[in-house]
Amino acid sequence: MTDRTTATLRIGSKELELPMFSPAAGPDVIDIRKLYSEAGVFTYDPGYTSTASCDSTITFIDGEEGILLHRGYPIDQLAEKSHYLEVCYLLLYGELPTGPQLEDFQSLVTNHTMLHEQMLYFYRGFRRDAHPMAIMVGVVGAMSAFYHDSTDIRDPWQREVASIRMIAKMPTIAAWAYKYHIGQPFVYPCNSLTYAANFLRMCFAVPADDYVVNPILARAMDRIFTLHADHEQNASTSTVRLASSSGANPFACIAAGIASLWGPAHGGANQACLEMLEQIGSTDRIPEFIDRAKDRDDPFRLMGFGHRVYKNVDPRAKVMKQSADEVLELLGIDDNPKLQVAKELERQALSDKYFSEKRLFPNVDFYSGIILEAMGFPTSMFTPIFALSRTVGWISQWKEQLEDPKHRIGRPRQLYEGETLRDYVNVEDR
Ligand code: ACO
């Protein structure tokens, strides 16, 4: 960050010089930290469309160009050449690991995949029909009751242990939420498998049968994890940062992120998108749904379309589309009706003025559900898989904030439009 020039703000006859900074990439920012103390005014930005809430060195998005970089590396290169645990290392520590560093990291994560056995009883307290996201919010929050030795956020060692624990245990937590949801026995992690293969096994193996992980599916799973690993200051990440700003323990903060991710405007969109493709059913019904999406009086939106930051194709969607083709072909599913509807819907929407003028393009969730369904996951598992993948992003951002000497409790202000001072009226007089 370099000092650039200043911005002049005129309020009536008063002039205020506000410092400006040029970041390493992206638009310049105006520093308004002293605005209230010096001018007595707030800024107004619901939805934070023009507000940088922190400085960060982790992820950069150029929404105009459709670029996503993790520590400077483009997401398409990482998706093609790297793998999830290497990307985790990169996000957490800032550089790609050397061979021995990667080996150590993989072994560390692999050796923390089991959950405290007492947590089994915690799962059993949920109703069978609980959504796996509901279980995940509860179980991750409850980790603070099981792992007391990694909740002191002032201790760098405890922060490190909490980070590794969450990355390592999240596949077990998500897979067990699924197993509980469908009434099957929990499958314990297997340390000889890769991160992605282990997750598939914990989801799909049953004690009565041998289960061999299909390496093609493990690779596709790993790519889905990689594509969702981090995405700078989105709603769930900002939730984690805000929760953490008060000094809350790491497990509570990540549980808050999972809760925020659940919404259909964010991580819940992959489930909503697949349900939409199912509802559309066949390509001849697409125009009807496009018309509904364009109708201001109809709340229907094309799920998996549009993004707050990308005003160009989401680079993750490109890789995801390619992956959907590959996985379905390898599984011998070449006539998947949902994939056909998705491709035709994308084609028609992209050639429609409404979508081009509003710069609405497919996002990462448009094709991910098709791959996950082909792998055998029910829609209720789509968002838990997103949460599992994003955990490393949340943790990296959480650590970065705690290590930043400038960090303070997050406390937005408001534009108050309610009643002003008035006297209480007794109930009999109202
Ligand atoms: N279908 C139809 N119209 C849309 C869509 C859509 N998917 N998305 C945005 N629009 C329209 C809005 O109606 C609005 O129109 P207007 O200007 O006439 O009022 C305009 O485009 C701008 O939309 P906003 O909602 O103001 O944009 P915002 O940046 O607040 O929202 C969001 C972004 C939430 C992602 C939105 O595009 C959306 O709801 N998409 C569908 C849900 C989805 O796919 N979410 C996943 C996001 S990616 C992720 O979290 C992993």
Question: What would you say this structure looks like, in words?
Answer:
The protein is mainly alpha-helical. Helix content is 50%, strand content 7%. The chain contains 18 helices and six strands. It has helices at residues 35-39, 75-81, 84-93, 99-110, 119-124, 132-146, 156-182, 195-204, 215-227, 235-245, 250-261, 269-280, 286-294, 315-330, 337-350, 353-357, 365-375, 382-403, and strands spanning 2-11, 14-22, 29-30, 59-62, 67-70, 73-74. It has a three-stranded antiparallel beta sheet. Strands 4-5-6 form a three-stranded antiparallel beta sheet. Strand 1 and strand 2 (14-22) form a beta hairpin. Helix 9 packs across helix 18 and helix 11 (250-261) packs across helix 18 (382-403). It starts with a strand and ends in a 27-residue tail after the last helix. The structure holds acetyl coenzyme *A. Acetyl coenzyme *A is lined by residues 265-267, 269, 293, 301-308, 358, 360, 363-365. Residues 265-267, 269, 293, 301-308, 358, 360, 363-365 line the site of acetyl coenzyme *A.
Write the layout of secondary structure elements.
Layout: E1 2-11, E2 14-22, E3 29-30, H1 35-39, E4 59-62, E5 67-70, E6 73-74, H2 75-81, H3 84-93, H4 99-110, H5 119-124, H6 132-146, H7 156-182, H8 195-204, H9 215-227, H10 235-245, H11 250-261, H12 269-280, H13 286-294, H14 315-330, H15 337-350, H16 353-357, H17 365-375, H18 382-403
Antiparallel strand pairs: 1-2, 2-3, 4-5, 5-6
Helix pairs in contact: 3-9, 3-18, 6-7, 6-11, 7-8, 7-18, 8-9, 9-14, 9-17, 9-18, 10-11, 10-18, 11-18, 12-15, 12-17, 14-17
The structure holds acetyl coenzyme *A.
